[in-house]
Amino acid sequence: MNKYIKAPISDIDAKNLRAGDCVYITGKIYTARDAAHKRMYEALEKKELLPINMKNNIIYYMGPSPAREGRPIGSAGPTTSSRMDKYTPSLLDLGLKGMIGKGKRQKEVIESIIKNEAVYFAAVGGAGALLSKRIVKSTVIAYDDLGTEAIRELEVKDFPVIVVIDSIGNNLYENVIS
C-alpha cells in the first residue's frame, strides 16, 4: 500500500506503518554513516549534546557523492544498516523514529525498534542517482571534517522507501525470505 508521510515523522504515522508499505517521505531527514554514528555515540558517553535532536527524526544511512552542477547532491544510495547497529538503540531511546538503509538488523536493534515504536525503512540499493532526484536541498550541519560522512540535513520530496521492520516487529525480510 502506498503511503505519504511528512518528516519529522509523527508517533501516529510511525505506529500506523506496516512492513511492506511503500512510503513516500516529504520533509527534512538527516544523513549519518559509520563515522558520524561513532562520534555521536562518543558524545553521548561524555554526556554531551548531539548535533541534531533525535525526537521523531529519520536518519538515512548514506554518504553522497559530490553534487553535479545545478544539483544539491550527487548519487545518494543507501549503505548497509548493520554497520550502525551498535549505536542505534541509544539513538532510538532518544526519540529517533525512523532509519533508512539496506539490509538486515541485529536482534537488539529490532527489539529497540519495537520498544520505541519506531520504523526501519529500506531504500533501493544501486539506485542512488534516481534517489538523489528526490532530494531538494542538502546542507552539512555537523562533523564537516568527515567529508561524505558528515551529518547532512536533507530536504526531500516524495522520497521512496519500503517499510522493512514496523513498530510492532513485523519484518519484511523474515516474512519474505525464508
UniProtKB/TrEMBL annotation:
| Keyword field | Lyase
Q: Domain (Fe-S hydro-lyase tartrate dehydratase beta-type catalytic): give its ranges.
A: 13-175
Specify the superkingdom.
Bacteria
* Keyword Lyase set for record: yes
InterPro entries assigned to the protein according to its UniProt record, in alphabetical order = Fe-S_hydro-lyase_TtdB-typ_cat (IPR004647), Fe-S_hydroAse_TtdB_cat_sf (IPR036660)
Q: Which one of the record's GO molecular function terms can you name?
A: hydro-lyase activity
Q: Which family does it belong to?
A: Belongs to the class-I fumarase family.
Protein name (Swiss-Prot/TrEMBL) = Fe-S-containing hydro-lyase
